[in-house]
Specification:
The chain is of the alpha/beta class. It has two domains: about 260 residues, 3-Layer(aba) Sandwich (Rossmann fold); about 80 residues, formyl-coa transferase, domain 3, CATH 3.30.1540. The chain has 18 helices and eleven strands. Strands 3-2-1-4-5-6 form a six-stranded parallel sheet. A three-stranded antiparallel sheet has the order 7-8-9, covered by helices on one side. A two-stranded antiparallel ribbon has the order 10-11. A hairpin with a 5-residue loop joins strand 7 and strand 8. Helix 1 packs across helix 8 and helix 8 crosses helix 9. The chain is elongated and about 85 Å long. It starts with 14 loop residues before the first strand and ends with a helix. The N terminus is likely disordered.
């Protein structure tokens, strides 16, 4: 890996406390950690973030947890105890932001609403992440990623056209969208505080975050128009756009965006220039309407070629294409290797490979610190707040940490 000059990272000196679990809040705070922020992850004593137990795929650690929790400090606190709440308040006194994605209403019940905290910490930014946001008839409704995908219409456009052909995203897309909006909103709030000197309240809804990403199908079905149909790995309205099978049984992903590309595709890929004048395929709309006939023609042309040969032909004609990789293919992807995107991170299971965050910046390197074990930083954090060894032992004895 090429070493960059170690200049100050953008969020060095910023401390963020996070009452987080699962994906949305941890994904948000990991992005902030990459930029240099100190993230103190508050977890339940003895249990921790329940995503620690999702699986044991990474040398005994959870794949979700390893992905979203590097560069953080783990502090266990029992927030139902007076001592645990006192420690948290002392921590917030020296912090810049609080992020939480507890169950609806849980933060307010233990005195962690923005309104209550703002009385004591006027500069504190409070970011609340929930399924449906504050207010409205769905405020108290439980929300998991799949349920938000369903409620937000994502499942109506994802999958295949057959009855019962809906398919969820293969990643936690509702959680990720909420995490990214929380991340950018906290950055904005930090900039605003530089001008006003005051903290602010951020209300992030998983539902609204995902619905924002549904803008194309929503506008496509504007004023009661027919919504886009499920099209599997193809595009609902652009064709040819999707996977096609080569003669060796492997799939090649390709996409055409305009009539110039269609002409080139007919002449140099299909070797059938006469199709350019075929009325069935003369526009994108007509190609989409006659996709079954066109799919047969493409498969017939590809049947004499391997997937690699198809890709060579597509590349030479400058037609957009891609390999259909599984996860093993992504681990070994030559582009990631060539751009030196891999580094290592320490963890309770030893050294692990990890990707550098997207977005190279010439002025600094990303912060890549260890994935923490549960309560690993209890003593360090509490000592930093002025608690003695005796205090820390007492907290442990009474179950406050």
């Amino acid at each position: 890996m090429i070493e960059k000059p170690s200049f100050q990272r953008p969020l060095e000196g910023i401390t963020i406390v996070s009452l987080e679990h699962a994906i949305a809040a941890p994904f948000c705070t990991r992005q902030l950690a990459d930029l240099g922020a100190r993230i103190i992850k508050v977890e339940r004593p003895g249990v921790g973030d329940f995503s620690r137990g999702y699986d044991k795929r990474v040398n005994g650690l959870s794949s979700h947890f390893v992905w979203t929790n590097r560069s953080k400090e783990s502090l266990t606190l029992n927030l139902k105890s007076p001592e645990g709440r006192e420690i948290l308040h002392n921590l917030l006194r020296e912090s810049d932001a609080l992020v939480q994605n507890l169950a609806p209403g849980a933060a307010e019940r233990i005195g962690l609403s923005f309104e209550e905290l703002n009385k004591y910490f006027s500069k504190l930014i409070v970011c609340n992440i929930s399924g449906f946001g504050e207010g409205g008839p769905y405020q108290e409704k439980k929300a998991y990623d799949l349920l938000i995908q369903s409620e937000g219409g994502f499942l109506s456009v994802t999958g295949t056209a057959e009855e019962g052909g809906m398919a969820k995203s293969g990643v936690s897309i509702a959680d990720i969208s909420a995490g990214m909006y929380a991340y950018s909103s906290i950055l904005s709030a930090l900039l605003l505080r530089e001008r006003t000197g005051e903290g602010s309240k951020i209300d992030i809804s998983m539902f609204e975050s995902l619905v924002e990403w549904m803008g194309y199908p929503m506008y496509y079905s504007y004023q009661g128009a027919e919504p886009p149909s499920r099209a599997g790995a193809s595009h609902a309205t652009i064709y040819p756009y999707g996977p096609f099978t080569a003669g060796d049984g492997r799939s090649v992903m390709l996409g055409l965006q305009n009539e110039r590309e269609w002409k080139v595709f007919c002449e140099r890929i299909l070797m059938q220039p006469e199709l350019v004048q075929d009325a069935r395929f003369s526009t994108n709309f007509s190609r989409s309407a006659n996709r079954d006939a066109l799919r047969d023609l493409i498969h017939q042309a590809f049947s004499h070629l391997s997937a690699d040969e198809v890709i060579v032909r597509l590349d030479e004609a400058q037609i957009a294409n891609a390999n259909v990789n599984d996860m093993h293919g992504v681990w070994k992807h030559p582009q990631l290797e060539a751009r030196q995107r891999w580094t290592t991170v320490q963890s309770p299971a030893g050294e692990l490979p990890t990707l550098l965050p997207p977005g190279n910046n010439s002025s600094y390197t990303a912060q890549i610190k260890a994935v923490p074990s549960l309560g690993q930083h209890n003593t360090t954090i509490l000592s930093g707040l002025g608690y003695s060894d005796h205090d820390i032992q007492r907290f442990q004895d009474i179950g406050a940490i």
